[in-house]
């Protein structure tokens, strides 16, 4: 069961907000704190979600850097 930084349960299709600036390996750019990510997908690992970010495509994020919107 995936949980955000506050311990709130995350479900497929939820929207989340980043709580920290994250550098993206290979993209040479940073996802800024406060970025809203919509329609997340759960992965096999409880501490990771998959999402689509504008101009970056599909990316996997750790749930410890997210809070449910």
Automatic annotation (TrEMBL):
InterPro entries: YjdM_C. PANTHER family: PROTEIN YJDM (PTHR30305:SF3), PROTEIN YJDM-RELATED (PTHR30305). This is PhnA family protein. The lineage of its organism: Bacteria, Pseudomonadati, Campylobacterota, Epsilonproteobacteria, Campylobacterales. It holds the Pfam family YjdM. It comes from the Bacteria. SUPFAM superfamilies: Prokaryotic SH3-related domain. Residues 3-69 form the Protein YjdM C-terminal domain.
């Amino acid at each position: 069961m995936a949980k955000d930084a506050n311990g709130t349960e995350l479900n497929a299709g939820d929207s989340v907000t980043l709580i920290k600036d994250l550098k993206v390996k290979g993209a040479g750019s940073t996802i800024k704190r406060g970025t809203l990510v919509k329609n997340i997908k759960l992965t096999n690992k409880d501490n990771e979600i998959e999402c689509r970010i504008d101009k970056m495509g599909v990316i996997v994020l750790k749930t410890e850097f997210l809070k449910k919107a």
